[in-house]
Amino acid sequence: xxxxGELVAPRRMGRDFRWLLASSWTSNVGDGVALAAxxxxxxxMTSSPILVAAGAILQFLPWLxxxxxxxxxxxxxDRRRLVMVANAARAVVLLALCAFLITGGANIWIVLASAxxxxxxxxxxxxxxxxLLPMLLKPADLGLGNARxxxxxxxxxxxxxxxxxxxxxxxxxxxxxxxxxxxxxxxIVLISRIARTPIPPRDATGTTGSSAAGTKVHxxxxxxxxxxxxxxxxxxxxxxxxxxxVTWAAPWGVLVLYAxxxxxxxxxxxxxxxxxxxxxxxxxxxxxxxxxxxxxFATMMRVCLSLEVMMxxxxxxxxxxxxALLIMFVFGFYAFVWGTISTTVRQRLVPHELQGRVSSVNxxxxxxxxxxxxxxxxxxxxxxxxxxxxxxxxxxxxxxxxFVWRPISQIVSARxxxxxxxxxxx
Length: 426
Description:
0% strand; 426 residues; mainly alpha
């Protein structure tokens, strides 16, 4: 009978992948703690809706400001070391915040500034970190590798972290951020154990990532955008993600009002919606290996996007909280299947020397779509009621699905560029 370690990270995927997985999971524990503690800290310092909303906006703003630059920088330097340096910057910000909290010198402006600095460093961590997996695994193992990373995110960030963060915040405002600093620091140690340092390979001009540093960052960004524009499968994949994030975010921005005022679920019921989604996502990540062996990626992508359309319609029609919980469970399942597939397909199609830039464009599209969608959802709900954003999302997602139904086959069948890359062996 295989051991738990073999089930989670099979030996064929290599020791370096296990160090990357351990680092990611550890970091996600800290992020999950902050997921509950950070809003509680802001709310304890101000009752201003604008300042509270500013704390949420700062989750997305660094991506829109620095996302493309982070991608270009990730394609220039040793990506493992970049993750370590950026995580070290996160730890410094957290320790400085803790010092202010312990000494009583913290105020809302210091907290918001810390959130922005922390979020900026996180952009570089996530961008560079997303390029490591395709450098450590063979193309055939990328799906399982991404699923395992997603499982760690769900367990640590969504399940374990938030309750622990709320408990520690009740014990003392600095405690959750001290624990987060410890988790981030431990993540640095774990990722440093990767034996083979992944360095961006030679690009089409024959220059390495390090020697290409003589060019301007904006030139590198433009090169990545040109490559993306000239590659129809990846371009279409990024466009799909952007459009579906706009429609998804429209009702999600007012979900708390929809749950409490329309479904009358109360605060606890609203929290249960998130738990139901995470539970479905965890089941998806655990069963992804079986799905990958028995169902084609094209079929799974079409099913996931079809379920997205039906999910919006179901939420628009339901008036029962228990039905909403079932819908959220299904949403969590297919959303994490989609996330794993779309990431895997992109990583297989993008050359190593462009992974950072293309990944950053994708992330900017994700967060940009969320900002646009939430703004639209707020206006629509204010004008036509709390179910109106769901109807908007249903119509928009349905039209988008008709537009992308056939191109999905072209995306999945495109020839991977990683077939001849030597991956890390056990």
